[in-house]
Amino acid sequence: MSNTKLILGNVITMDEKNPSAQAIVFNDGKIEFVGSSSEAKELYKDVEVLDYSGKYIYPGFLEAHTHGIFAGYRNIGQANLTSVIPPDLNKYREIIKKFIADHPEKEKYMAAGWAEDGTPIDHTYLDEICSDKPLIMNTAGGHSCLLNKKAMEWRGVNKEMVEKYGTALVHVDENGEPTGYICEEPAVKLLADMPMSLQDAKDYILDWQQFIFSKGFTGVTDAGADLFFKQANTAYSELEQEGKLKLRTVAYILSKENPEDPKAEVERIVEQQSKYSSEHYQIIGVKAFLDGVIESHTGWLSHDYLDEPGYHGNERFNDSKKMIELIVEASKHNMPVHVHSEADGAIHFMLDCIEQAQKITNDYDQRNVLAHLHFILPEDIKRMASTNSIAVVAPTWTPKFPGTYDNEIKYVGEQKAFNGYQIKSFVDAGVKTAFHSDYPVSVPVDIARNIYTAVYRAVPEQQYGGLATQRNAKEAIDRLESLKAMTINVAYQWKMEDILGSIEKGKLADITVFDCNFLEDDLLKIAYDSPYATIVGGEIVYKRK
Prior knowledge:
The chain is α/β, with parallel strands linked by helices and about 550 residues long.
């Protein structure tokens, strides 16, 4: 019984039939026993004991939508601006300057995490920081970039690009000259073309892995694993073969927008699934972008932007016939389609397509995913439930953040902005709801903060200087639903609820240990709790010092 471990503590199982316990026994990476400590000690003698008495044990937490390689790249390969709250161009400048000084060997520089607050800015801001090499500043949302002159020359940001994409995606000044600010397709393509070797990607994954373990997550979704690095599958596969990949990573592979042959797109992804899926890296579906984001003026609304009549956002994947075919072909291979769907126009389009596809396939268990869901039409919440679509939402996005919330009001009006980022409406309608951070597109990725913001829809006054205030308290959910959204509901999203998401006999030996009882302790205390230990497959992969 050398592989057997007896775990003692206050166990919150997320198993409705057996919600609490005092002991768990792991054997060969699976849960063998859940019950009382006295019975466990009687049955399992002379085994390794991990005594977490006084602490609380949860199923390994799962993240519904992140970007793994990009997260590591943000953490160690870029000038990280995300700590600057509220946005401050002077502070950004100092961070970027220091990064450049610390990395003189780089041919191109990326800074990321710029939170747009409506302040006018163009390439001259970056030219003053660095004029001899390409420098790109990526927004916090990840859908827009600002380039200095050297970067504009490198990417061909000129009048020809303006003609190709239009001024909504390639911004120009009053003279029609590009400002260096680009959005959506040209911006995302730029990110994917930044220099990155296979070894870089592996280093970024390992950095991400240790970081996310320290946050208490045992499994994550890589939503578009190949979005920022085309050899992502190889990077994950080699780390698995080397015995270094421990993080359970579920991947959706990127589809082209409005592809000429949707069937071929699915077949390509199925081939990758067969070739690269392994114990810790599972390719399960297709990823697609429907639109952009509200803060970049590119979310696909059901109406015009109030500040720009005649314009309702960027329709990235908008061919319904091709989306229906993509869903149908994915269903044949038991694959869901996971879409970036920020605004109500994009969401309505996708639900129309899912309904049409279900008439063809009669597959109501495909578990297609709509992620972000900033604004949604009331009738579409009901359609989310009737199509068994998964709502992937970010509770940490729900407060009224200064600058960004003001822009929302300018773009869509105060009432619609106030009703943004609904959560309880999904839960009440019976929609399976899962939490995400979209890390590193946004921060933080934090289990305790998710619970606090889901319940209060605001952040504690000590965080962000008390500037992020409550938005629409009627959309708050309770603690138990919050825990479900980070455990069993994500496992359901992945079609892995039989092996993950709760502490039950026969499931994988993944747990996370915290100081707090998330169901009963004071919420302010919970907001500042951090993981004590993270265990994957019975192995301790993180322990707080």
